Amino acid sequence: MCHENEAGSPDSWVLSPALRAEWGLLEGGRGAERCGQPRISGRIVGGGDAARGQWPWQVSIQYNRHHCCGGSLLSAQWVVSAALCFLFCFPQSAYRANLGEHQLFSLSPNRVSSHVRQILVHSDYKRGTPAADIALVQLAKPVQYTDKILPFCLPGPSDSFPDNQTCWVTGWGRTDSGSLLLPTLQEVQVQLIDTAACNTLYNIDPAPNMGRDPVKPDTICAGYAEGQRDSCQGDSGGPLTCDHNGTWFLMGVVSWGDGCGEPNRPSVYVRTVAYGEWIRGHVVSGGQATSMENSISGVNDSRSSFSTYMLLFTTLLMSL
């Protein structure tokens, strides 16, 4: 996570009101929590250490108990993350999802560590491209919501977020390409950038392996032309969340970038609204996937041309 040094019923799937109306679904029954409503507030403009419980949907995806990626709690039993995070996928039992996490390397009474029942990677995810870099993780059993563990809201097609809106990205990722993971959850403010404007930035001295216009319609950029505040390696799969009238929506999933906090290189996120029907198809139908698609035993593709891959590769080698 790059930032400037500035001061400053539980089994139900929770949907935004617009998306719930579109799909004809009702709010969960007794005990259901409202999505996107953290019980703790007070953010630092520009970024820094997040307060405990400030981002209650933040998840640490761990492989052999080492943090490798972020994730976001969609419901009591489902987490949204990036396909890249499950590049190796052997064995599934080596993956865990830590919820209520704040300090990676310290014991916490707020932490809930869950085994994984199944991992679903989008069938369009292909090695060497950033397309469809999204995955769903089903937890072994539903978690109980607390003030440190709550779901985000998923935006629907009618939920509007203007370009240049200020949003937040969170994670334990590096502060630059050469540093280590941070022990404390970080937060940083970024601005949404439309696809055309983002491609204009990436077309300035483009990297040879990217070509022109590498940012596609199913993704969204966030950051600043001058750089400095950005996601970085270790943040992959984590949330880009935006506030709309006091409710927080998951706008994007951290996917890729060219360096960390570099000028003209804002980070690129999977646009969650582009995959709303795919998410619904796997999660809404009784909480079970209708098909495994690229299931845990069948994932062989990776996005090895981007820098995030190298962190995951190194982390997994160290843990074997």
Automatic annotation (TrEMBL):
<dbReference type="Pfam" id="PF00089">
    <property type="entry name" value="Trypsin"/>
</dbReference>
<dbReference type="InterPro" id="IPR001254">
    <property type="entry name" value="Trypsin_dom"/>
</dbReference>
<keyword id="KW-1015">Disulfide bond</keyword>
<feature type="domain" description="Peptidase S1">
    <location>
        <begin position="44"/>
        <end position="284"/>
    </location>
</feature>
<dbReference type="InterPro" id="IPR043504">
    <property type="entry name" value="Peptidase_S1_PA_chymotrypsin"/>
</dbReference>
<dbReference type="InterPro" id="IPR001314">
    <property type="entry name" value="Peptidase_S1A"/>
</dbReference>
<dbReference type="GO" id="GO:0006508">
    <property type="term" value="P:proteolysis"/>
</dbReference>
<dbReference type="InterPro" id="IPR009003">
    <property type="entry name" value="Peptidase_S1_PA"/>
</dbReference>
<dbReference type="InterPro" id="IPR033116">
    <property type="entry name" value="TRYPSIN_SER"/>
</dbReference>
<protein>
    <recommendedName>
        <fullName>Peptidase S1 domain-containing protein</fullName>
    </recommendedName>
</protein>
<dbReference type="GO" id="GO:0004252">
    <property type="term" value="F:serine-type endopeptidase activity"/>
</dbReference>
